[in-house]
Amino acid sequence: MSGPLISLRDVNKYYGEYHALRGITAEIGAGEFFSLLGPSGCGKTTLLRAIAGFEDISGGTITLSGKDMKGVPPNKRPTNMVFQSYAIFPHLSVEQNVGFGLRKSGMSPSEKTKAIGAALEMVGLGQYGKRAAHALSGGQRQRVALARALILKPKVLLLDEPLSALDRKMREDMQVELMKLQREVGITFILVTHDQEEALVMSDRIAVMFEGEIAQLADPEVLYRKPATKRVADFIGVMNFLPARAGDGLEVAGLGRVDMEGVYCPQGDVSGACSVGLRPETLSLLYDGETARARETEGVIDEVVYYGDMTYYDVRLEGLEEPVRLSMRNMVGRDVMTVGQTARVAWDPRAMVVFPG
């Protein structure tokens, strides 16, 4: 990944008295798959539209390829956008939809035909050019929207929750296809999503946003394993939060005393009341004959949720009001435990993240 293609510097946006974007500063590299992730109303779509030029900003700067975008209209920016609704023209054929942006390109008819064909091949719709757009499936319409955006060869492709209308299986398939497509075309993709799993799967880096601010910007593994705040930890995936007290060591409810060495404290030294975060997969059930590599405690299974490849268990530990959730991959010879069973739970202090308060 080369130097920044997009620079955001202290970007602010007001709607009347409502402060939608609050001093956003970030850099996005050429060829990067970058995601804006957050709950509804956090400002992620507003920021995407500001990069595209559909929203004027109230303060700060947005530069693309070193050029300040102030006053530059959307059609003059090196960006193109795929909307959540796809905005496909149902009365046009697939190839007419894809070629719509070439009307004023100055290209000859043969050049347009060649460009449309190449764009359709790129998204796996080479045989669908003559088909009516209204006859396509949701996944196919999404590909048409991608081809229509990519045919103009933008430096940046902006994606506003493009997979949200698809069913789960199609969405998962399209996540992989988008990743492959981004690598093939080599341009910068900026994705807006509220789906944590989608962002973790697809992105080189993710900006987690709350209330118009970036709470943390990092690669997926860092976000998941080393969240900067308890709010980020709670938003990214599932995390158990156990009451604790830090001092000369760490006393964790349900788990007991551990040494602070090797325990991650993202906000610096912690003392007094705090909470400890543990991901479900960092806790595990021990079966007969198995021994814990680090620490072990005992509990009672409170709930079992079977997903086929995985089983999630809620386990009650002595000293905790709420059960902890842990996940186990279902393997041949490993039985699924049942509610009410006594369970041995293995855990490792190195998986802990400590948050103040």
Quote the distance from N terminus to C terminus: 39 Å
* CATH-derived topology of the largest domain: Rossmann fold
**CATH class wording of the largest domain:** Alpha Beta
- Order of strands, main sheet, comes to 6-7-8-3-9-10
Order of helices and strands: EEEHEEEHHHEHEHEEHHEEEEEEEEEE
Indicate the low-confidence ranges by residue numbers.
Answer: none
Would you report the number of β strands? 20
In what range is the share of β-strand residues?
A: 35-45%
The count of helical stretches stands at: 8
Apparent shape: globular
Helix content: 10-25%
- Radius of gyration over alpha carbons? 24 Å
Instruction: Name the CATH architecture of the largest domain.
Output: 3-Layer(aba) Sandwich
Main β-sheet: number of strands, strand sense, barrel status? 6 strands, mixed
The tally of structural domains comes to 2
Q: What is the name of the CATH superfamily of the largest domain?
A: P-loop containing nucleotide triphosphate hydrolases
| Oligomeric state of the chains present here | single chain
Annotation keywords:
2 domains; 6-stranded mixed β-sheet; 22% helix; Rossmann fold; OB fold (Dihydrolipoamide Acetyltransferase, E2P); 357 residues; 5-stranded antiparallel β-sheet; globular; alpha+beta
